[in-house]
Write a structure and sequence with these properties.
The complex is a heterodimer.
Chain A (H helix, E strand, L loop, with lengths): L1 E11 L4 E11 L2 E3 L10 E4 L4 E4 L1 E3 L7 H9 L23 H10 L2 E9 L4 H9 L5 E8 L3 H8 L4 H15 L3 E5 L3 H5 L11 E2 L4 E2 H15 L5 E4 L9 H10 L5 E3 L7 E2 L7 E2 L1 H10 L3 E4 L6 E7 L2 H6 L10 E5 L2 E10 L4 H16 L6 E2 L13 H9 L1 H10 L2 H6 L11 H16 L15 E4 L5 H6 L3 E4 L2 E5 L2 E2 L7 E3 L8 H12 L4 H4 L3 H8 L3 E3 L1
Helix pairs in contact in A: 5-7, 8-9, 9-11
Chain B lengths: L2 E2 L11 E2 L15 H12 L6 E2 L2 E2 L2 H14 L3 E7 L2 H14 L2 E2 L4 H14 L2 E2 L2 H7 L2 E5 L3 H4 L3 H6 L12 E6 L3 H11 L9 H12 L3 E5 L4 H18 L6 E4 L6 H12 L5 E2 L6 E2 L6 H7 L4 E6 L13 E5 L12 E4 L9 E4 L6 E4 L10 H11 L5
Parallel strand pairs in B: 5-6, 5-14, 8-9, 8-10, 10-11, 14-15, 15-16
Antiparallel strand pairs in B: 1-2, 3-4, 3-16, 6-12, 12-13, 17-18
Helix pairs in contact in B: 3-11, 3-13, 4-10, 8-9, 8-10
The chains are: A alpha/beta, B alpha/beta.
The structure holds iron/sulfur cluster (SF4).
The site of iron/sulfur cluster has 14 residues of chain B, from helix 1.
Pfam families (chain A): Amidohydro_3 (PF07969)
GO molecular function (chain A): hydrolase activity, acting on carbon-nitrogen (but not peptide) bonds
Protein name (chain A): Formylmethanofuran dehydrogenase
């Protein structure tokens, strides 16, 4: 099947196409060169006047795993169905189900999404859930940094090479695309009844600091040659004054690649009468000054949501502000976490400032290759609110309208009024396509070069950017038209992406003995077997 | 040495070993009676053909019959779900497709815990955390060692632990402990109690002396369960204001946790959800399977039980069984019996451990001609396009 996508304005930063009209050709799931004779096309889709980009990629969205699923259970009131299922589309009436996640992402033109917090012991479930998300490709990031085996190695002064073996083994065991550190040592310290851990605080019993854990994991990722830099959820999330923690963490990266997740939640100063201010300028300056650092924002948008995190300290601390008043905190092997529902209100000083800080960061960090579009779904807002965020970034007037209606004090002290920048389509294409593919090491997507996967999103240009990005006019996944006029028209099975770095298998005997001594499980059963996954839940793994 | 996982209780132990040359054995000995019995009945089962009204029938005829029963039903109920992830997925997908309701054999307990969870949330621990860190385990429930034969060996008695090398103190409270727990909670919160129980002093002493007391709750008689669980949830919440404590809820097994969790990521809500209107609606009372059957609201029972051999409940409605191949019927046979592969014996699968944190892979022990319920479900869905 040869498809010609004809005459759209193409935004493909990798190939330096900035709105030039042209054709994109697709054969058997991949982008191909134009044939000599255009009449060879089996199907021609006339896209004149439309905007065409590669499929969008979300690098940080909590879409699967025990924590997410338990949040669904906790909050049935948040996802009561509004419409009946469409024939041929299983579970399409089931809001916030795995199916709904795939359908809604696809309808916005997203074709790849990364679940950034796979606790290794929960990896089988996370993958089973990912396999049940239709259409989009997925990947997970494995959580390390509170795992007793790693902390013991560090305490015992293991060589970096052994740490590398262990990190590679973890990726192999969990079939993930990279690693994530959440408040390094924090969940462990919590288990010793500590309720806060700073970057240079010692983790009880292990005698090493959060910083040391982070550095060791970061070095491992670099030395193993894993494309995605260590994905960091810093210490002190959500605490006023924590911009300093973020700045210290950037320094701790010491020039090596590091990705800081949902930095909006670290953009907090502690100035002013309320002891809560914007630290966005300092954070943005630090990001700009350190080209080794990438960030995603974790934008807050107003409304009801639920915070879901492996940061058990933070979630435990936030339990008193739960809205509605119910919360879950859990501890498990090598980690823990919590689920705290929350409603961000425009008239609330802190919430309004959080909203503004996220936007300040988006607008002050003037390098769309290093700042990524996320709401930390569902922590800052559900991903279904993305159209609103596109509009806020692309339409200054719209931002100003909001500034009139949010908490007046927050609006007054925010820099937002003075920031004139509006993202253009090229920058959007970088931030949501080209850059995330590069950051994740997914070379086959995020651009429209010949040989790339034919993940393509087409939008109808509109003044209202929320309407434009909310409903793609056409989406191709692996060359198959899956969305037309903003609605899913065909369900296909996505794939899950992972890395398979080499390591010394000798480490398995130590890990296996460790499991036999301390756990209720065997190492061999703890590891994911791709064949087992494929045969049972139909999950197809692709290695990079 | 390849290890075998056992699906026959909520522990889902993954450390059983069957010497390779013994794979053909039909009388394995694992040192756990429940496991031995579970594996034996699956390995010895010989039924491979479906039954229509108790008479042997071809697969073709049986599937045609299943299709027409499902098509003709106004409100099918997909119930039992005593299986693994693949079985529950099949049931949930069929409920969505044919517009029915789903429930689990242990739906009463699941629904009760869910109600408590949805009203207040809770603070919980995992089996591994208890194994490694709890220094006091307050064990609540009726004869947990019968339900989980290796509970002590695996979780409570390990002397090699991440922190310290002394197994936790076990304080067994049985299932008649509501008064004691309420008094302990009140006293720990500094509230006056009208009437004390002698035991409360010791339990308070134990809790105060522990750095990580965990309330492990095994299945309880229904009339006592709700208040006991609520009291423990509150007690743990109070304790955590200054120190540490947690709950650990252990399911009853038979795929209860797997059914609940997988239903949740499929329909958003979990069991006791009805798909009749085209979208999922959960109602923990109205959608109770037994109630739907007794009231006659459900007009077809589709019973999934790949892990247990007991027959489905005797009901007035026609019944389709996706069942364990050793299932036998003393009373009236069901309208249709479809023997399916037992997960962990005849086919690979996945089953959640009792705390829900871990989905344990189940291997296949031997080749089997038995189909799995997922494949049958796919066939039925494609053979009967959806009505709306
Ligand atoms: S305790 Fe349960 S899971 Fe473990 S072997 Fe016995 S029956 Fe199987």
């Amino acid at each position: 099947m040869l498809i010609r996508l004809k005459g759209a304005q193409i935004y493909d930063p990798v190939n330096e196409l900035n709105g030039a009209p042209g054709d994109v050709w697709v054969r058997d799931g991949y982008i191909c060169a134009a044939p000599e004779n255009p009449a060879e096309a089996d199907r021609t889709i006339d896209l004149e006047g439309r905007i065409l980009m590669a499929g969008a990629i979300d690098i940080h969205s909590h879409i699967a795993g025990g924590n997410v699923n338990n949040a669904r259970l906790l909050l049935p009131e948040q996802h009561l169905a509004e419409q009946a299922r469409r024939p041929r589309f299983p579970f399409s009436g089931a809001k916030w189900s795995g199916s709904d996640t795939g359908y809604r992402y696809a309808e916005m033109g997203f074709t790849t999404v990364v679940e950034p917090a796979v606790l290794p012991i929960n990896a089988h479930q996370a993958h089973a859930e990912l396999a049940d998300i239709p259409i989009i490709d997925t990947a997970g990031l494995a959580i390390v940094g509170n795992d007793d085996f790693l902390l013991r190695m560090l305490r015992d002064g293991a060589e970096q090479a052994r740490i590398n073996d262990y990190i590679a083994w973890t990726l192999h065991a969990t079939q993930c695309l990279g690693v994530k550190v959440i408040n390094a040592g924090g969940a462990t310290a919590f288990k010793f009844n500590e309720r806060q851990l700073n970057l240079d605080d010692e983790v009880p019993m292990y005698g090493m600091t959060s910083r040391a854990i982070l550095n060791a994991v970061q070095r491992a990722v670099v030395q193993l040659g894993i494309a995605h830099p260590v994905h960091v959820h810093c210490n002190n999330l959500g605490i006023p004054g924590n911009v300093n923690t973020a700045l210290d963490t950037i320094k701790a990266a010491d020039g090596l690649p590091m990705h800081l997740a949902h930095v909006q939640f670290y953009g907090y100063g502690d100035e002013g009468d309320s002891g809560f201010s914007s630290g966005a300028r300092a954070l943005a300056d630090a990001v700009m000054a350190n080209p080794n650092i990438t960030v995603d924002i974790g934008q807050v948008l107003f409304g009801q949501t639920v915070t879901i995190s492996g940061d058990i300290m933070r979630q435990f601390d936030a339990r008193h502000i739960a809205n509605p008043k119910k919360w879950v905190v859990w501890e498990g092997e090598d980690g823990g976490g919590g689920i705290v529902p929350f409603r961000y209100r425009a008239k609330n000083y802190v919430n309004a400032l959080q909203w503004a800080i996220g936007l300040e960061l988006f607008l002050l960090i003037d390098d769309p290759w290093r700042v990524f579009f996320t709401t930390d779904h569902p922590n800052g807002a559900p991903f279904t609110a993305y159209p609103e965020l596109f509009k806020l970034l692309m339409d200054r007037q719209y931002r100003n309208q909001w500034l009139e209606s949010i908490n007046a004090k927050s609006a007054d002290i925010s820099l937002l009024r003075h920031l004139e920048r509006e993202y253009d389509l090229n920058e959007i294409a970088i931030m949501t396509r080209a850059a995330p593919a590069k950051l994740l090491g997914l070379k086959d997507r995020g651009h429209l070069s010949v040989g790339a996967i034919a993940d393509i999103a087409v939008y109808r240009p509109q003044e209202d950017k929320a309407a434009m990005f909310g409903n793609a006019e056409l989406v191709l996944k692996n060359g198959v038209p899956v969305v037309e006029n903003g609605r899913v028209i065909q369900v296909i099975q996505g794939k899950t992406h992972a890395v398979a770095p080499e390591f010394d298998r000798g480490i398995e005997s130590a890990i296996s003995t460790y499991f036999d001594r301390y756990h209720l499980m065997k190492m061999d059963n703890y590891k994911l077997d791709p064949q087992h996954l494929l045969e049972t839940v139909g999950s197809e793994l692709v290695f990079h | 040495m390849a290890y075998i996982s056992c699906p026959f209780c909520a522990m889902v132990c993954d450390d059983l070993s069957l010497p390779l040359h013994n794979r053909e054995t039909t009388t394995p000995q694992f040192g756990c009676n429940k496991a031995d019995q579970g594996f034996r009945s699956a390995l010895q089962a010989t039924r491979q053909t479906p039954l229509i009204d108790g008479e042997e029938a071809s697969w073709e005829a049986a599937m045609k019959q299943a299709g027409s029963l499902l098509k003709g039903a106004k409100h099918p109920l997909f119930h039992g779900l005593a299986g693994d992830l693949l079985d529950s997925r099949a049931a949930i997908r069929m409920a969505d497709h044919f517009g029915g309701s789903i429930d689990h054999l242990h739906g009463d307990a699941i629904a009760r815990n869910l109600r408590i969870y949805q009203q207040s949330g809770w603070q919980i621990s995992s089996m591994g955390e208890v194994r490694n860190r709890a220094d006091l385990v307050i064990l609540i429930g009726t004869a947990p060692e019968q339900l989980y034969p290796r509970l002590r060996e695996k979780m409570l008695e390990g002397s090699e632990r991440l922190h310290g090398d002394v197994p936790p103190t076990i304080r067994e409270l049985g299932d008649d402990c509501l008064d004691l727990l309420s008094i302990v909670r009140a006293r720990l919160a500094g509230k006056p109690v009208q009437q004390d129980i002698a035991d409360s002093e010791t339990l308070i002493g134990q809790i105060n002396a522990a750095s990580y007391p965990v309330f492990v709750i095994a299945p309880l008689p229904e009339q006592r369960a709700e208040l006991i669980v609520r009291t423990c949830v509150g007690l743990v919440r109070d304790l955590n204001e200054t120190r540490r404590s947690a709950l650990l809820m252990l399911g009853a097994g038979d795929g209860d946790t797997t059914a609940q969790l997988s239903a949740t990521w499929h329909n958003g809500f979990g069991i006791r959800t009805c798909h009749a209107k085209g979208y999922p609606e959960q109602d923990l009372q109205m959608q109770a399977g037994d109630r739907l059957l007794q009231s006659g609201e459900a007009d077809l029972l589709v019973w999934f039980s790949s892990l247990r051999c007991d027959p489905p409940p005797a009901v007035a409605q026609p019944t389709i069984v996706f069942g364990h191949p050793a299932m036998s019927f003393t009373d009236k046979p069901p309208a249709l019996f479809l023997p399916v592969a037992v997960p962990g014996v005849h086919r690979r699968g996945y089953l959640h451990r009792a705390d829900g944190l871990r989905l344990v892979p189940l291997p296949a022990l031997r080749e089997s001609p038995l189909p799995d319920s997922g494949a049958l479900c796919d066939q039925l869905i494609s053979q009967e396009p959806r009505r709306c």
